[in-house]
Each structure stands twice: as structure tokens, then as C-alpha cells.
Write a structure and sequence with these properties.
Elements (H helix, E strand, L loop, with lengths): L1 E8 L5 E8 L2 H10 L3 E7 L3 H4 L1 H8 L11 H16 L4 H9 L5 H15 L4 H6 L7 H13 L2 H56 L7 H36 L1 H13 L3 H22 L4 H11 L3 H15 L4 H8 L4 H13 L2 H57 L1
Antiparallel strand pairs: 1-2, 1-3
Helix pairs in contact: 4-5, 4-9, 5-6, 8-9, 9-10, 9-12, 9-17, 10-17, 11-12, 12-13, 12-17, 13-14, 14-15, 15-16, 16-17
Length: 412
């Protein structure tokens, strides 16, 4: 005979808890139902699960939250911990109880408690997640629903955690690759402004004391310096207004669509943006299909998850064709968005019934392409910026010393 802790509700919806001794969980469920109660959860081990020293410390001692908002890292860690605990045989309710005390986000703590509360009231896990659409995306909800239906929730959550981890790692690579060029550009612009606002005016005052005609290059530099000193604040305000207007413009559907078309048509970078969107799409599709989500639902989730309106429209058309029984290859080819390699791999995946594996290969290919592109971009950008900034500074130095050369000739 073993002890089982149970959570149940009576006909009025009032929560009832207690401990029953029985051979199996099924026997406990039968005993509780004989009492006229509706079973919510049965946890092997009895009340010691809530009072034992090992679990007691993890549940009752709550780590002080570090921030309010829910970050991508918070959700990734939450998913990984959840998959680990459920895979170890811990119930969802107990897992949420343990994890909630360890999260760094106070909002995620409140959400975890609400998930637990909603599940105790009778909701399934995916239904409880759907109550918080601002935190858990359609990808979360549909994958969890698939895991609950198949009885492989731990496996599905592990795949979701893997997807979130790879996605976060890839975004960190992009940010890390762009930080150095941004710092280099900012430092270069700062040096040019310092020369224009401090050094050039000092030389200009010195040249005024000499009765000479300044060389054309020096006159241009002094004119630029005077303009910046008079209108620099207005120039910054104008740039700010332009940026604000641009942000408002791309917040509209037509503006965002126009900007996306512009990005795809950029020389060199257009191919990168195209590859980036295909990488995100193929990664999501691989995760969804591998977790048992039907193709139509997978396409629907990918459509809603797409950060690109053009790609979202293409996915919607593919979904409509699939619903009508048409092959995906024709839809991919007709879109004009995907390269022949992608079309061919999708076609093979359809024929042999290995679409998830094919989407994984597409994802791996384009992720490697984006990594390589960023590495080459940074390696090429550094010397270009150094030469460009160095050239401008050299021209400014020459322009400032030309009048001195003229004076030396006159003096000689």
C-alpha cells in the first residue's frame, strides 16, 4: 500500500485535498469518486511531497525576482526546467510549484501560480497557457496540446526548449556580430565631430589673424565646422523626427510591406534577409511537425508567428493549397520566395514522408549561411570603416595644415 496526495473538487466547485492509501493511482481515483468528488490530480508519495526536506526548500524558499517583465531567457529556462521535471515523473502541478519559486521574473511567477490555479480548477495545461497569450505564443499552446494528446508532453517540451535555445543563441550571434561595427562607427563619428567642433574652429581663429586667402579645402572644412556649430542641435532633432516618422510609417501594413520589399531588394544584404526569414520559418515548421502537429496547423502557426508580412502572405497561400489537396512543392515554387534547393527538399520530404527532417536540414543550411555571412560582414566592415574614417581625418588634417604651408612659402 502506498500513500497518494490528491486534489479534487466537490459539486459546488470547492477544492478538497487529502491523502489516501491504495495500491495504484486508479484505486485512489475510484475512492475519491465514490465520495462524490471530481478528481483534479493524484500525486504519488502522499503529503510528504509537500513537507519533505528536499522539496520543502525548493518550494517554500522563493528566490527574489530580479525583474518584472518576462524575457526570452526566462521562458526558455522555464520550458527546459518544466520538461526536465515532467520527464523525471513529477506532475505538472508540482513542477509549476517548484519552478515558480526559482524564476527571475515576478510576472512569470504570477503567471505560474495562475497556471497552477487554472489547472486545479479543471483546465488542461494548454488551455491554461492560452489564458496568457501575451506570454505564451501559439507555438507553445499548440505544441503542448499535441504533447498532451499524444502523452509525450515531456518530449514535446524538450523539443520546444531546444527550439527556443537555438533561436536565442542565433539571435545572440546576430547581435554580437553587429555590436562591434556599431561601436566602431559610433567612435568614428564621435572623432569626426570632435575635430569639426573643437579642432577646426581653433585653427580657424588662428588663420583669421593672418592676411591670407585660405585654400579651398580649408574653406570647405571651416564652412562645415561653422554649420555644425550653429545647427547641430537642429540636425539631431531633424534626424530624430525622421526616425520617428519612419517608425510610424513601418507600423502601418502598407509601410511595413514596402520596407520589407526594400530590404529584400538590397544588394548583398537582400539575400541575407531572405535567408534569415527562411531559417526562422523552416526551424518553426521542423519543431511543429516533429512534435506531431498536423501540417495545416503547423502552417497556420507559422503564418501567425512570421515577423514578415510578405512571408506570412506566402505561408497563407501555401496553407490554402494544402487544404485543397495540392502538393506543397507547387505552392513553394509559385511563391517566387524560396530557392530551388528549398523547393526540391520540400518535394522530396513530401514524397518520402520525411517533411520534419527536410525542414531541419533547410534550417541547418540557412543558419550556417547566416552565420558565415555575419562573420564575413564583420571581417570586411572593420577595415572599410577604418580606412573610410582614417581617410576623412587625413583630409581634415591636410586641410588644416595647408594654410601653414602657404605661410611658410611666403615667409621663405
Amino acid at each position: 500500500m502506498g500513500k497518494f496526495y490528491y486534489i479534487a473538487r466537490n459539486s459546488a466547485g470547492v477544492k478538497k485535498t487529502g491523502v489516501e492509501e491504495a495500491l495504484t493511482q486508479e484505486d485512489v481515483v475510484a475512492k475519491i469518486q465514490d465520495k462524490g468528488l471530481i478528481v483534479v490530480n493524484v500525486i504519488p508519495g502522499g503529503s510528504e511531497l509537500f513537507s519533505g526536506p528536499a522539496i520543502d526548500n525548493s518550494i517554500k524558499v522563493r528566490i527574489k525576482p530580479k525583474h518584472r517583465r518576462v524575457t526570452r531567457e526566462d521562458l526558455t529556462l522555464f520550458c527546459r526546467q518544466l520538461s526536465t521535471l515532467i520527464g523525471a515523473g513529477v506532475t505538472i502541478l508540482m513542477s509549476l510549484e517548484i519552478i515558480s519559486k526559482q524564476v527571475a521574473s515576478s510576472k512569470l511567477y504570477d503567471t505560474s501560480m495562475d497556471l497552477k490555479k487554472n489547472m486545479e480548477s479543471g483546465l488542461s495545461f494548454h488551455e491554461a497557457l492560452a489564458v496568457h497569450p501575451g506570454i505564451f505564443s501559439d507555438l507553445w499552446i499548440n505544441l503542448v496540446e499535441s504533447g498532451e494528446a499524444s502523452g509525450n508532453l515531456a518530449v514535446v517540451l524538450s523539443r520546444l526548449a531546444g527550439y527556443l535555445e537555438k533561436d536565442a543563441e542565433f539571435k545572440k550571434k546576430i547581435i554580437s556580430a553587429l555590436i562591434y561595427p556599431l561601436i566602431l562607427t559610433t567612435a568614428g563619428i564621435g572623432a569626426l565631430l570632435f575635430l569639426s567642433l573643437k579642432i577646426v574652429p581653433t585653427f580657424a581663429e588662428i588663420f583669421k589673424s593672418f592676411d591670407i586667402v585660405l585654400p579651398f579645402l580649408t574653406q570647405v572644412l571651416v564652412g562645415i565646422s561653422d554649420f555644425l556649430r550653429k545647427y547641430l542641435i537642429m540636425l539631431f532633432l531633424l534626424i530624430g523626427i525622421v526616425i520617428f516618422a519612419f517608425q510610424k510609417f513601418i507600423q502601418t501594413k502598407s509601410g511595413r510591406r514596402s520596407f520589407e520589399k526594400f530590404k529584400f531588394k538590397l544588394p548583398v544584404f537582400g539575400e541575407f534577409f531572405l535567408a534569415l526569414n527562411i531559417e526562422r520559418f523552416s526551424s518553426g515548421m521542423a519543431t511543429l511537425l516533429e512534435s506531431g502537429v498536423p501540417i495545416l496547423y503547423s502552417l497556420e502557426i507559422s503564418e501567425r508567428s512570421a515577423n514578415n508580412l510578405i512571408l506570412a502572405d506566402i505561408i497563407r497561400k501555401i496553407k490554402e493549397d494544402v487544404r485543397e489537396g495540392k502538393p506543397m512543392r507547387a505552392s513553394f515554387e509559385r511563391s517566387g520566395f524560396f530557392e530551388p534547393m528549398v523547393i526540391q527538399m520540400v518535394s522530396i520530404g513530401e514524397e518520402i514522408g520525411e517533411l520534419p527532417q527536410m525542414f531541419k536540414r533547410i534550417h541547418s543550411f540557412y543558419q550556417e549561411y547566416c552565420d558565415t555571412f555575419l562573420t564575413r560582414f564583420v571581417s570586411m566592415f572593420e577595415p572599410f570603416v577604418l580606412v573610410f574614417i582614417g581617410g576623412i581625418i587625413g583630409v581634415m588634417v591636410v586641410g588644416m595644415f595647408l594654410p601653414i604651408f602657404e605661410l611658410s612659402k611666403i615667409g621663405g
